[in-house]
User: Which sequence fits this backbone?
């Protein structure tokens, strides 16, 4: 059984091909530029070449692509966009128009002259990933599922803070299903407000196997729990320090006991350590984070976790984890199955096991070290 997992971040997209016949450490993996970085490079080249651009496709992650779009417009060059593609920069299309982007309909985009560079917006370029594996002789015709993770703020109503909207969603999911895999969905069950996840599903309509989508940070934290050193501690705080966002979950025997989410760029080691201590002792308040321009915080179990308790551990994953490298809290840097970069992929596998019961036993056997036949890859049957 094979499952293709794709964890789409701001800096990189991390790909892991799970094969139940192999020990999980032998699975094939790729670490590639993120889709928004690819769009950033395409727009910057268009700016250098003084070319007009039209953006088509679906809603995807912004950040680097939005900055390149702004610079393109500042250079005095036309930038057209269909509505769905434009929402990659802001759910409010009037705000995108205020950037200087000209919004055009899908039909109008088709009539734009051919000398205008067309750039397709989408988070998951499944065809390109499949082609890479094909070029290296790896067959994927027998996939059991595809899973993809992106960070989705959710489309907040015009009069609601997008930070508060995002955090209200986290709270709702935790209260409904106290498990990290609650942030994963079958493609047909994605809530309407999660427009980026829905766009991933929309861009894979031709896919003939089940698609599971998930939020990136819970995926990375769930993946980190499969590090053998992390797994032995019944109580822990696990942080995913991403390029844009830092999400921390306090986990105990009964599940999620607390959470906070902030913008990584606003945090330094001292601020982050203080938030960790407050989350550990149960005194962290929503306003402590929200009033500092973060998303917020919630504590569901307010009993104190002692930082000196041998059953407790502080665990860090994510591309910006070095923020805490010299911390007096002495956090553990998780490396599930020997690879921090693929933590989110392992988390998606675990979530897929929850959402697809027919695959659960096989996936969990691999994640808990009992899967795989011990057969080396070169002795597998030829596909």
Assistant:
């Amino acid at each position: 059984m094979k499952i293709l997992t794709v964890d789409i971040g701001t800096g990189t997209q991390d790909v892991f091909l799970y094969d139940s016949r192999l020990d999980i450490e032998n699975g094939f993996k790729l670490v590639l530029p993120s889709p928004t970085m690819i769009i950033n490079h395409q727009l910057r080249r268009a700016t250098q070449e003084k070319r007009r651009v039209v953006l088509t496709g679906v809603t995807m992650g912004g950040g680097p692509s939005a900055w390149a779009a702004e610079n393109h417009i500042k250079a005095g060059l036309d930038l057209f966009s269909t509505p769905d593609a434009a929402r990659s920069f802001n759910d409010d299309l009037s705000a995108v128009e205020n950037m200087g982007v000209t919004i055009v309909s899908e039909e109008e985009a088709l009539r734009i002259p051919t000398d205008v560079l067309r750039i397709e917006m989408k988070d998951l370029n499944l065809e390109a990933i499949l082609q890479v594996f094909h070029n290296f002789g790896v067959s994927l015709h027998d996939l059991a599922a595809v899973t993809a993770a992106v960070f989705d703020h959710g489309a907040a109503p015009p009069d609601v803070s997008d930070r508060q909207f995002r955090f209200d969603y986290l709270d709702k999911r935790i209260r409904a299903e106290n498990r990290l895999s609650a942030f994963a969905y079958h493609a047909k069950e994605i809530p309407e407000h999660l427009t980026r996840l829905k766009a991933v599903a929309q861009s894979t309509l031709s896919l003939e196997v089940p698609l599971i989508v998930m939020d990136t940070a819970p995926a990375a934290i769930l993946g980190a729990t499969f590090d053998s050193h992390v797994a032995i501690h019944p109580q822990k705080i696990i942080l995913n320090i991403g390029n844009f966002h830092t999400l921390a979950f306090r986990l105990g025997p009964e599940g999620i006991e607390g959470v906070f989410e902030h913008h990584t760029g606003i945090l330094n080691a001292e601020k982050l350590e203080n938030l960790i201590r407050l989350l550990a002792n149960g005194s962290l308040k929503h306003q402590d984070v929200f009033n500092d321009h973060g998303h917020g915080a919630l504590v569901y179990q307010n009993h104190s976790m002692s930082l000196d308790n041998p059953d407790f551990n502080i665990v860090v994953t994510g591309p910006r984890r070095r923020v805490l490298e010299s911390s007096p809290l002495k956090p553990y840097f998780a490396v599930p199955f020997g690879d921090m970069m693929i933590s989110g992929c392992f988390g998606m596998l675990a979530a897929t096991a929850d959402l697809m019961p027919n695959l659960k036993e096989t996936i969990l056997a691999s994640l808990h070290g009992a899967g795989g036949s011990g057969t080396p890859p070169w002795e597998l049957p030829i596909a």
Q: What stands out?
A: The longest helix spans residues 162-176. The first strand starts at residue 2 and ends at 8.
